[in-house]
Amino acid sequence: MAEFKTVRGMRDFLPEEARLLRHVEGRAREVARLYRYREIVTPVVESYELLSAKAGEEVKSRMFLFKDLGGRDVALRPEFTASVARLVATTLRNEPRPFRLFSVGSIYRYDEPQRGRYREFWQTNYELMGSSRPEADAEILLLTNSLMQTAGLKKFAFKVGHIGVLRGILTQEKLVDKVQSAVMQLMDKKQYEDAFRLVESAGVSETCILTLQKLVELKGNNVLDVVDRVAELVGDYEKSVEASRNLGEILDLVLKSRCDVDMTVDAGFARGLEYYTGMILEVYVPDLDIALGGGGRYDRLIELFGGDPTPAVGVAHGVDRLMLALQEQKAAQRTLRETEEERAVLVVPIKEELRGEALRVSQMLRNAGVSVELEVMGRKMAKALEDADRRKMSYAVIIGERELKEGAVVVRNLAKRVQSTVKIEDVLEAVKS
Length: 433
Ligand code: HAM
Prior knowledge:
single chain; alpha+beta; five-stranded mixed sheet; binds histidyl-adenosine monophosphate
């Protein structure tokens, strides 16, 4: 029989990695609590129509799409946003706004596998729905900043922009939505020349091309200053000026929060997902040129799904990439040490007849909250202790006939290599000391 492997792009998390994954997830949940985002759990499988509505060509072409046995076109979710928007457009329709909703789980995209890029990966996702105000956008930035910090990252930076700047120009130049989206896809991949050619072939003005060419050059971390320069540059395009003012307001609020946020404004920044209407963001770390998170404002998705017009802004973080960055920055070890497992006890019966007693003592300790492993390999005492020692367990509780007659067992401190006879009712005390 062939040797089984994981399917391409899929991978196993061994205990250390699984622990790091759950650590990041735990921190994300803590951030959700602090910012009051309530967790919802949505299905992994959704209708293709819902998922593809505004996903953009790139994500659409990479979906795990199939027909279920009922003949429905369904897909594995390539993100959370569509599912959350569906809920708000339907079940939550009449609930008071704003909504702050958090999700975490596995996501599927048929991407080309490479470092930090998988076909099954994990996201933590936050959506703030019901507010069009800049403080909502600022909250999404600050929340991401909090998450990166509490997860243990030492160095990271935001790239921010506003899709309304580009869209404003292209709309005023009368480019239809479909062409606009194609331009955004190219800009997202930094294929600027192709993007310009496409715009040019749509018969735009000379000013338009010149403005776009200058825009993609405009970036910097003196954010309010860059925003002012963007506003100046797009002066001929009313909606674009409005968009840059909006970005200015958002960034001004972030600065006023006095949080230490490392941001760069990139005027030519676009994202592949098609639903964005406003501020957009991505997070990067110095040694990885892949985004650790991305998001932005999308004010029309919920009405597109049949809900009431509901402005919204949100962000998703790539947990796998966060783990990678933690490992790169040597923060993973520290992080894992901090979440080190509590002390563990091995319970070993000296002979087979004492297995029942061993189970009873194990259960007593577990009921008191101590984690216990029972020796299930039937090994000799010395072997079992050697193995427990190698795995850095703290204590062994040895169930012997002679001690048991006195209602006692032997408790061995594995690190100190000392042992004593302890009454069964005092074992808990002994392994906690
Ligand atoms: P996204 O930028 O497509 O946005 O994905 C968010 C994050 O997921 C990325 O920044 C990256 O860290 C991670 N990611 C994406 N693809 C992969 C992959 N193949 N392997 C590993 N990690 C990956 C969204 O998904 C939007 N729904 C975010 C959003 C929420 N916008 C508004 N609300």
